[in-house]
Design brief:
The protein is an alpha+beta fold and about 450 residues long. It is about 35% helix and about 25% strand. The chain folds into four domains: about 110 residues, Phosphatidylinositol 3-kinase Catalytic Subunit, Chain A, domain 1 (Ubiquitin-like (UB roll), Roll), CATH 3.10.20.90; about 150 residues, Roll (PH-domain like), CATH 2.30.29.30; about 50 residues, no CATH class; about 100 residues, SH2 domain (SHC Adaptor Protein). The longest helix is centred in the last third of the chain and has 23 residues. It starts with a helix and ends in a 6-residue tail after the last strand.
């Protein structure tokens, strides 16, 4: 009931706004390259666009849906911040640039507010010379958001020399005033620091094919681009040695450019949820009940409630498969159980290893982002692809047969599951042999 009312409220608010302003047509793509053209108000923001497609496609709004700007001829892309005007972004595109808007998940968009240690390694962060001192991580985000304090990111990066094909390593310093490189080793003296970019009218992008397109020494490339310039010669091309380093620089640049606005973007949807009385009443009124005995009882132990819920889910699944195969043989029932994963959003069938890595990278390199796919090397097995510490690892899911029954296992048969759905649900609750729990599934939608 709450979902219906909130959806109608959002729709009515959107359409009222739609008819009260000038309309323009925009085209948005999804990850499978399907697209949809929609008529929207000229002052629409990236968050508004995401809300519109969440409603149109009946997606779950977990605050990770994001609008991306992709510039194919430069092979670069960036997150369009939730508050940004989409029409202003498009106004910076050249007539023949073929730039695109993409709607997809980005679990890492605001993760640095929750886990700053994962994004800002201690050896790369300090307080600038004006304030004398070392930054404590507990104050890190507050320092970034405060206009009076001066945090500093520093370290070595490869830079593409202007007008040349070669890349050279320099010591860089990022401050609120801009990005500098030192022309004398690691010196931070003002006479040795040269400004190469400021962010008042520029944005930071990631390079989609750093090695292939730009001849970079690694694939962890990014760049700074002025808003109104769309030529490769106008890009400040940079390259890190690893993903953690690149993520630190890109995240810090976003924070320096937008500051408190990013934090407001992060907390706004959560504040709306908390302020909804219908949601709080419905959630507070739900209790776990046990109806197995002569009298019903409230289950007060959370662990017991969880185990009962899991068992009920498994029981429902067995009954569903039995009904589906009621006119077939017992083997048909086993087949129904073993193919239940096909309808799950986390299952991506014929995806290759490289494609899986690309999809997870696109949707956010944070702990627990995962998908399940067919194994290319062994047609009888599956692979769980999982992100942990900004690295993607692949775990083989092996079928195990016993007494004519088929099970699936990640640990050589020690822990067995009747189907992939049961396996995923287990590792969402328990880390087991994995480096972390399964938390965010990679999902693709068709617009």
């Amino acid at each position: 009931m709450f979902y219906v009312h909130s959806t109608l409220e959002k729709c009515s608010s959107y359409w009222f706004h739609l008819f009260s302003t000038v309309l323009q047509v925009i085209k948005v793509y999804s990850e499978d390259n399907t697209s949809r053209a929609v008529e929207v108000p000229s002052d629409i923001t990236a968050r508004d666009i995401c809300q519109l497609f969440i409603l149109k496609n009946h997606c779950i709004d977990d605050h990770s849906w994001t609008l991306f700007e992709q510039i194919p001829h430069l092979s670069i892309e960036r997150t369009i911040e939730d508050h940004e005007s989409v029409m202003e972004v498009q106004s910076g595109w050249g007539m023949d640039s073929h730039c695109c808007l993409y709607f997809r998940k980005n679990y890492a968009k605001y993760e640095f507010f929750k886990k700053p240690l994962d994004f800002f390694p201690e050896h790369m962060v300090s307080i600038s010379s004006e304030t004398n001192g070392i930054m404590s991580h507990s104050q890190l985000i507050q320092t970034f958001l405060s206009s009076s304090s001066c945090p500093e990111i520093h370290g070595f990066l490869h830079a593409k020399e202007h007008g040349r094909k070669s890349w050279k390593k320099f010591y860089f310093v990022l401050r609120r005033s801009g990005l500098y490189f030192s022309n004398k080793g690691t010196s931070k003296e003002p006479r040795h620091l040269q400004l190469i970019a400021e962010f008042s009218d520029s944005d930071v992008y990631t390079l989609l094919s750093a090695k292939k397109v730009y001849g970079a020494p690694t694939d962890y490339g990014f760049c700074v681009k002025a808003s109104k310039l769309n030529s490769a010669r106008d890009l400040k091309l940079l390259c890190a040695d690893d993903e953690q380093t690149r993520t630190c620089w890109v995240t810090a640049m976003r924070l320096f450019k937008y500051g408190m606005q990013l934090y407001q973007n992060f907390v706004q949807p959560h504040q709306k949820q908390k302020s909804s009385p219908m949601r709080s009443i419905s959630e507070n009124s739900l209790v776990a009940m046990d109806f197995s005995g002569h009298k019903s009882r409230v289950i007060e132990n959370p662990s017991e409630a969880l185990s009962v819920a899991v068992e009920e889910g498994l029981s429902w699944r067995r009954k569903s498969c039995h009904r589906l195969s009621s006119h077939g043989s017992p083997s048909t029932s086993q087949s129904s159980m073993s193919t239940i994963h096909v309808a799950q959003l986390w299952f991506h069938s014929k995806l290759s290893r490289d494609e899986a890595q690309k999809l997870i990278t696109q949707q956010g390199l944070i702990d627990g982002v995962f998908l399940v796919r067919d194994s290319q090397s062994n047609p009888r097995t599956f692979v769980l692809s999982l992100c942990h510490t900004q690295k993607i690892k692949h775990f083989q899911i092996v079928p195990v047969e016993e007494n004519g029954e088929l099970f699936y296992s990640l640990d050589d048969g020690h822990t067995r599951f009747t189907d992939l759905l049961q396996l995923v649900e287990f590792y969402q609750l328990n880390r087991g042999v994995l480096p972390c729990k399964l938390k965010h599934h990679c999902a693709r939608i068709t617009l």
